[in-house]
Amino acid sequence: MLSSIRTVYLTNLLKLFKDNYCGGIYFSLCYNNSMRLIFLIFVLISLKAQSQDLGYSEEVIANYENGILAYQRNDSKTAATLFNQCISADSSCFEAHYNLALIHFEQAKFKQAMASAFNAEKLRPFDARLASLIGRTHYQQSNYPKAEIYLKRALSIGDSNADNLLYLALSLQKQDNFKYALHYFNELLSLYPPKMDYYFNRGLLYTEMEEFENAMNDFEAALGNGIDALPNIYYHLANTSLKLGEGEQALAYMDEGLNIVDKKEKIALLLLKGTFYRDIGAYETAATHYTAAYELENENPLVLTHQAAVMIDLEKYETAIDKCNAAIALNPNQMEAYFNRGIAHEMIRDVDQACSDWQKAFVLGSQKAIQYLNGPVCNE
User: Fold this and answer.
1) Nearest-5° angle of CA 180, CA 113, CA 175?
2) Other beta carbons within 10 Å of 124
3) Domain count, the chain
4) Which residue among 125, 155, 177 closes a domain?
5) Domain limits at 337?
6) Where among 93, 125, 157 does a domain terminate?
7) Is there a domain that residue 196 lies in?
C-alpha cells in the first residue's frame, strides 16, 4: 500500500518538476502553487516512508494528507487546522510542526512561525530545511546574527539552495560584514542561473561599499532582466551615475524612470532630480521638481522637507518655515525639517528658535546641527 502511494506521488512530482522548473532553482524564490505543493509532497513522501517506524497513526497521516490538499487549494486556514490536529494527536509529528511554521512564514506571521519552528527543532535539531526556515524567519524579524547562525547551519548540513545563500548574504550585509556578504552573493551567482534580484541586491551591497562601478554594472544587469520586483531601480541607476560624475546619464535614467514607474517611485525620482538641479544652483528648476512631487503626495514629510530646503535657497524663509512645520506635524522625528527650520529662523533673526531647532535636530542624529550649536550664533 505504502509503495503504491509513493509511486503515485513521485509520478505527480516528476510532472510538476517538468511543468514548473524555475530556472534551475527549486523551492526557493518560486512561490507559485505548484512549487509549494512539490515541497510538501517531498515531506509527505518522507512522512509515509517513516510512518511505520515512527508509529504515526492513520489519523495523523490522513490529517496530514488532507492538510496538503488544502494547502494546494490555497486554503491555508484549513491546512493549518489539519496540521494542528496532527500535532494534537501526536506531538512528535515533525512534519506537521514544520509545515505549520512554513504557513505562518508565508503569511508574514513570523512570531507564530518561530514558535512552530522551535517545536519542530526539539524533534529534529539538525534538519537542514528547518534550519533554513528558522534563519529566514530570524531575518524577517531583523535578528541578523541569529539568521546568520541558522543559515550557515543549513548550508553546512547540505541545504545550499538559492534562498539560503541570498538570505545569508543579506544577513551579513545588515551586520556591515560586507566582505563575506559579497562572498555569498558571488557564490549565489556562480551556482544558480542569474536572476535580476540577485544582481540588484549585490548592487546595493556594492553601493554601501562605495564601489560604484560594480554597483552600476549590477544595476544595469538587473534592469536588463526587467523591472518587476526591483524597488527604485531607476533611482539607484541615476544615483549611482551621479556618484560616478555622469550627470547626463543620471538625468537620462531619471527621465526614463519617470515615464514607467509608479507614484511612490516617481516621487523618489523627482526628489533626486530636484536635488541634482539644486546642487548646481538651479534653484527654480529644483523647486519645480519638488513641487511636482508635492502634487503627487502633499502629505509626505520628505517632500515637504526638500521644498523647505530650496525655499531657503530662494530666500523665501517664511515659506520654508511653513513647509518644515507641516513636515514635523506629519513626522515629529523628521530631523532635516528641524535643521532646515533652524536655518530659516536664523535668517529672520529668530536666534533662540533657531538654536532650539538645531538642538532637536542634534538629538535626532543630525551631525550638521553640532556645527551650528557650537558656532557663534548659539553662543553669544
Assistant:
1) 20
2) 15
3) 2
4) 125
5) 262-380
6) 125
7) no
**80 is written with which cell numbers?**
493549518
| Grid coordinates belonging to 373 | 550649536
Selection from 23, 28, 294, 22 nearest residue 161 by Cα = 28
φ and ψ of 334, to 5 deg: -75, 90
Q: Do the beta carbons of residue 241 and residue 276 sit within 8 Å? A: no
> Concatenated DSSP letters for 197-249?
HHHHHHHHHHHHTT-HHHHHHHHHHHHTT-STT-TTHHHHHHHHHHHTT-HHH
> Is 210 part of a structural domain of the chain?
no
* C-alpha–C-alpha distance, residues 323 and 337, integer Å: 8
Query: Would you say 74 and 66 are in contact if contact means Cβ atoms under 8 Å apart?
Result: no
For the chain, 380 residues long, give each residue's pLDDT as a single digit of tens: 333 333 333 333 333 333 333 332 222 333 344 445 445 544 544 444 444 335 688 888 899 889 989 988 999 999 999 999 999 999 999 999 999 999 999 999 999 999 999 999 999 999 999 999 999 999 999 999 999 999 999 999 988 899 999 999 999 999 999 999 999 999 999 999 888 889 999 999 999 999 999 999 999 999 886 665 577 899 999 999 999 999 999 999 999 999 988 899 999 999 999 999 999 999 999 999 999 999 999 999 999 999 999 999 999 999 999 999 999 999 999 999 999 999 999 999 999 999 999 999 999 999 999 999 998 889 87
Q: What is the CA radius of gyration of the chain?
A: 27
Report yes or no: 1 and 135 within 8 Å, Cβ to Cβ. Answer: no
CATH number of the domain that residue 372 is part of: 1.25.40.10
Residue 235 to residue 233: CA distance in whole angstroms: 5
Cβ–Cβ under 8 Å, residues 198 and 181 = no
In a domain, 90, yes or no: yes
| CA terminus-to-terminus distance, the chain | 92
The answer as to whether 276 is a domain residue is yes
Task: Name the nearest CA neighbour of 261 among 216, 293, 309, 218.
Answer: 293
